């Protein structure tokens, strides 16, 4: 039984190696098929380009001289490989130019969109700041007006700022009443003087 187990283990290991070898061969063949497909595609493209060149030459040649010049041009281009490489480079550079143009156009559109959103956010932020500034200016003006009224009250009543603070801190109602009475008297005196004038 032990020998059978060793035999099956060896056979299993050999089969695993065979399977791995076949898998690697399959991958190699798949790669080879892809290379051949690419080569065949390139050849078909070259045949198509030759057919296009031949048709253009036939369409443009109206007499024997133009036909002869066209055949010589095709011979130079396709047999002697004089002009074909430059055409490939030109076609490649055109494709590269188109790809770059598409890339720059999409990047341009994205940047325009970013500018629009940034401008919108900037305008919203500015309007919010302006509204806050208006509120703050109104509060400052209200405080200035209140300060002016207080200073006028101090001038009219004759009390000093320290006396008013002490009165408000102590909470002496008599001082407040006296200040109000004195301001009323001063106000009536001013009204009387204005009436006399």
Please describe what this structure looks like.
The chain is mainly alpha-helical. The protein has a domain at 1-82. It has helices at residues 2-60, 64-79, 84-157, 161-170, 173-196. The model has no long low-confidence stretch (mean pLDDT 80).
Briefly say what this structure is:
The protein is an all-alpha fold. It has helices at 2-60, 64-79, 84-157, 161-170, 173-196.
Layout of helices and strands:
Blueprint: H1 2-60, H2 64-79, H3 84-157, H4 161-170, H5 173-196
Helix pairs in contact: 1-2
Descriptive terms for the model:
elongated, mainly alpha, 5 helices, 93% helix, 197 residues
Tally of strands = 0
Cα gyration radius (Å) = 50 Å
The largest sheet is:
none
Question: Structural class, please?
Answer: mainly alpha
Strand content: under 5%
- Low-confidence spans: pLDDT under 50, at least 5 residues? none
Q: Helix-strand pattern, N to C? A: HHHHH
The first-to-last residue Cα distance is 140 Å
Shape: elongated
Q: Figure out the total of helices.
A: 5
Q: What is the arithmetic mean of pLDDT?
A: 80
Helix content: over 70%
């Amino acid at each position: 039984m032990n020998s059978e187990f060793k035999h099956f283990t060896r056979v299993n290991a050999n089969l695993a190696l065979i399977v791995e070898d076949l898998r690697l061969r399959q991958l190699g063949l798949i790669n080879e098929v892809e290379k051949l497909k690419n080569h065949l595609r390139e050849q078909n493209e070259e045949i198509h380009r030759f057919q296009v060149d031949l048709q253009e030459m036939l369409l443009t040649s109206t007499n024997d001289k133009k036909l002869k010049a066209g055949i010589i041009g095709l011979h130079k281009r396709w047999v002697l490989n004089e002009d074909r490489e430059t055409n490939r480079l030109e076609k490649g550079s055109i494709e590269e130019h188109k790809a770059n143009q598409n890339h720059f156009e999409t990047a341009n559109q994205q940047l325009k969109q970013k500018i629009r959103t940034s401008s919108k956010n900037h305008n919203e932020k500015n309007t919010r700041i302006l509204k806050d500034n208006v509120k703050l200016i109104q509060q400052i003006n209200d405080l200035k007006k209140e300060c002016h009224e207080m200073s006028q009250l101090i001038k009219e009543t004759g009390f000093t700022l320290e006396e008013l603070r002490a009165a408000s801190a102590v909470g002496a109602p008599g001082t407040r009443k006296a200040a109000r009475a004195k301001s009323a008297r001063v106000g009536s005196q001013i009204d009387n003087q204005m009436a006399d004038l």
